[in-house]
What does this fold into?
Amino acid sequence: MSTMPYDNDRASQVYLAGEFFNKLSPETLRELASLQHASDYPANYILLSEQDSPQGVFLILSGEVKLSVNSSDGRRLILRIAKKGEIIGLASALTGSPCEMTAETLYPANLAFIPRREFLNFLSHNPDFYQAVTMELSRHYGMICEQLRIVALSSSAPEKLARLLLDLGRSGQMTESGMRFRFTFTHEEIGEFIGTSRETVTRTLGIFKTRHLVDFKGSTLTIPSRAALESYACI
It folds into this structure.
């Protein structure tokens, strides 16, 4: 992990691209940037672990962060992937309770850390930031409910996997071949997203490819017809 010189104007521009920070005034963004310590983190770096005491929050400047919960017997459920412009560790920083999930970088990432005491003090003096945080917590809750709906209420592994791929594809790029996005998860990790085994994921992906519902080229996944995959997912 390396720390980089921090540019407040650069930080403000980064945030303006994120949904959470779009709700803040330019003055609030500049003040918030002055509190942060930006660092580069390698892939698979644990930022927060379940039951850790909250130390502060992380703002994602670039890269992606995997959020998960773990059982006592070592099973893991991946809740979602947090992306550029999102804030990590928000709930535990606000309540002072132990961290409710594990946060791990998916790829090399640049994140800005704000210590909890400074974060809470900033929150108390900036009404627009307080409102944005409240809305962000509601958004996080909605996304987690959607993930649990996929895992618990979808009737079959193919339906769960189709719903997951459709959700991940929302941030992809539309091309002549279909919706294309970066996809580097192992079959075991995909199983952790949808609550099934690696073997079931491998078998289901094989069926999807045979039926031309998805296409893989290296780390790129393409959904040729979103409508066809939605039909398969019973949406």
